[in-house]
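so the lab meeting is tmrw and i was supposed to have these ready like two days ago... anyway. pasting both below. for each one the top line is the aa sequence and the line under it is the structure tokens. i havent really looked at them closely yet so no promises
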Amino acid sequence: MFARSAKTLEAGATLNILLVRLAELCFAAEMDSTKPGSTRVDSGRINDVL
């Protein structure tokens, strides 16, 4: 039972890490979109991914 709980916690931690990384990438894309000639990331698309 403890092993199952540990795996669940580990999976949750991995998911949190991935969500933080996704947020960082979305932020970087949003910052890049302010440069001339770049395309803007639609916030609806970000919400679809999340």
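ok protien two:
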Amino acid sequence: MMKQKYFTVLILLIALTVSSLDFTFVSKADSQDNAPTVIKTCSCTINGTERVLTLYSNGKLFFKVLNSTYSELLDLDITAVGFDKLGTLYCIDSDNIIRWWNYDLAYDAPGLNAIFISVNNEEIGIDNVKELILDEDNNYVIGFRTFSGDTYPTLTMSEMKAYYDIPDSPTPTPTPTAPVSTPSAAPKVTPTTPPKNTTDPVVTPKTVTTKKVVKKKAGYSCLSIGNKVTSKYKLAKGKLTWKGSSKSKKYSGIKSAAFIKKSGNLVFLTKKGKVYTLSPKGKKKCIVKKKGKKLILKNKFAVKVQVGKKFINIANK
């Protein structure tokens, strides 16, 4: 009788073990089936360094500089990508908007920039892009085509520098040399005493612009005006922590955040599509109630927010 019970328990243990192993194998197989796959890689070499773009099936786009520690997740929901001959990357997102970024000009400010219809209308990006146009060898991007059939070339170096506020390299201006004249006889000069000026000169004070910069320190993005840090924030796993001179705030469900240069306000985008500003004194204000998708940065500062397929200027918020 005891042997029969022992045998029954043994059979049950074996069955449970096999079931557990089967569940583990199925779970691993399901996990592997759901893992994103690489759908495209492309590379280029500029200034002796090779850069590689990797686009995954889930729309994630990674940029890597080989033989260095530089690696960035640039964006999500990307459908097409490529380099031009200047090393500028171009991509199309799921909203059919064309975007670009140049590592050599903005390695410290990674982020994809929209291309606008005209320099005088920076609220509407080109958002009906069908495909990237490649050269004859299918190596480099030379332009892009919209669904309506319009084609546009890639940006020039001067246009990209203008976007990043980088002075274009001008042609050096020669310094004129004053002609040397030797008089035949030195004229006699009679010294004279100039009349005394009884009116005090008017002195115009020189306007000094204090530089604003954003730097990383101890996990925080810090806004500094001159040598003084006015406020700072960190964003991790959707949780935003902000610290001002005398106050601190915490928010959850946050997608992205950045400082606005002119006002010093922090702007942040929630996962529900709302956009708020937070003043250096901690005053919160909603500026977009719905459909906010992405903050557009320029030199680490927020300049626009994408709302649906339009872009709203927030540089003065």
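from a quick look at the 2nd one: Residues 116 and 126 are 6 Å apart (CA to CA). Helices lie at 2-34, 103-106, 157-163. will dig more after coffe
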